[in-house]
Design goal:
mainly alpha; Ammonium transporter fold; two-stranded antiparallel ribbon; 16 helices
Length: 437
């Protein structure tokens, strides 16, 4: 099949936009931590880029997107026909009529896997060993992400049943949110949680990160159509509409509840709206995107407080935004999915469809969330019992940037002089001039 240059050019751009989301997430998460943890937090996102890129190339694409109908495991995970992506090099274009090179499709999907793993890190800020995190990212991608992608987007059982997930509300956000909850429980609470202030140290970084995520999300959502057509335009518009409404909803909740509309609330509301519209962006009318954004902004604004009531330390609200927001978006399709964006049998309840699609949109989050939570808890426990997943308490109090990376995010002069060194030798405090009384 001849390569479609327009589609290929758009998908290359969309792939780069989605990859940019992970550095954007690093800024977003880094600004939300305390100053002594910012580098470690950002390194966890960059570490995910490294590990997931390699695992995707070696076997991830094969497990997620190849078909192995002769195997009893095909409903659960793909085969081994694309190990090392060599078969995609030999097959120049996808055989689905898009006219896009198979390697471009694989690169696009790789960026989804990367950010899904990176999202989990926000739940364990300040306290996870970097080496343990890198190992976890490899194992989790292999045992959780790749199979779930096959379930929903490959030839797995949820796809066969007819679940709808346009760009990853279930595969990415519910998957990562459930894993974040499990890992937060495995590692336990931060030292001083609820006793010491743990406010974001740099809200300008948070807003920068949110802006990069917002920009990259157009590639995430519109790119998931894998074509340059009206549905891609619909997904693009719905992404903007839902996100803007979600920001407004979050700020209204903050103003009514706390008396202040905050920049952190604006950034968090934007991400909540982006998350919720992700599974629905190509399947709903623009007015429905506004409803989804409104629900996501308001519900997630309250959901981030669940950790204080239930007692789990989700450092950067991955559960409240990504798990809850993903559920809002996925279930909304059972009500708001519209023909002609979908086949008539997949219409939502409000468009004359029955309860069948609604049931599937509930089953998906339950199945993926349950699987991700259980597997993540097991993986985390094994790593914790073998090499240890959490840094020592004294290192956490001192600051994970210094103790794990021998660096600090900011030049604070003599505040961190003790025990530090520079390329030019040890850093020492400047001599003080004696003043006579």
């Amino acid at each position: 099949m001849k390569i479609d240059s327009g589609t290929t050019a758009w998908m290359l751009a969309a792939t780069a936009m989605v990859l940019l989301m992970t550095p954007g997430l690093a800024f977003f998460y880094g600004g939300m931590t305390r100053a002594k943890s910012v580098l470690n937090m950002m390194m966890m996102s960059f570490g995910a880029i490294v590990t997931v890129t390699i695992t995707w190339m070696l076997f991830g694409h094969s497990l997620a997107f190849t078909d192995n109908p002769s195997s009893a495991l095909n409903n659960f995970v793909g085969g081994f026909d694309a190990l090392g992506l060599q078969s995609l090099v030999e097959t120049a274009t996808k055989d689905d009529g898009t006219g896009m090179p198979s390697l471009v499709f694989s690169a696009f999907q790789m960026t989804f896997a990367i950010i899904t793993v990176a999202l989990i890190s926000g739940a364990i800020a300040d306290r996870a060993k970097f080496g343990a995190w890198m190992l976890f990212s490899v194992i989790w991608a292999a045992l959780v992400y790749f199979p779930v992608a096959h379930w929903v987007w490959g030839t797995g059982w949820l796809n066969t049943m007819g679940i709808e997930d346009f760009a990853g509300g279930t595969v990415v956000h519910i998957n990562a949110g459930a894993a974040a909850l499990a890992l937060a429980l495995v590692l336990g609470k931060r030292q001083g949680w609820r006793k010491e202030p743990m406010r974001p140290h740099n809200l300008t970084l948070v807003l920068l990160g949110a802006a990069l995520l917002w920009f990259g999300w157009f590639g995430f959502n519109a790119g998931s159509e894998l074509a340059v057509d009206g549905t891609a335009g619909l997904a693009f518009l719905n992404t903007q509409v839902a996100t803007a409404v979600a920001v407004g909803a979050w700020l209204v909740v903050e103003k009514l509840r706390d008396g202040h509309a905050t920049s952190l609330g604006a950034a968090s509301g934007a991400v909540a709206g982006l998350v919720a519209i992700t599974p629905a962006c190509g399947f709903v009318d623009p007015w429905a995107a506004m409803v989804i954004g409104l629900l996501a902004g308001a519900i997630c604004a309250y959901a981030v407080g669940l950790k204080y009531k239930l007692g789990y330390d989700d450092s950067l609200d991955v559960v409240g935004v990504h798990l809850v927001g993903g559920v809002v978006g996925a279930v909304s399709l059972g009500f708001l999915a519209a023909y002609p964006f979908l086949d008539q049998q997949s219409e939502g309840l409000f468009y004359g469809g029955g309860f069948g699609q609604l049931g599937l949109q509930v089953l998906g989050p339950v199945a993926v969330g349950g699987y991700s939570f259980i597997l993540t808890w097991v993986i985390g426990k094994i790593i914790d019992k073998t090499m240890g997943f959490r840094i020592p308490a004294e290192d956490e109090v001192t600051g994970i940037d210094i103790t794990s990376h021998a660096e600090t995010g900011y030049d604070l002069g003599t505040v961190h002089a003790s025990g530090m060194s520079s390329p030019n030798g040890p850093v020492t405090a400047p001599a003080t001039k004696k003043v006579d009384a």
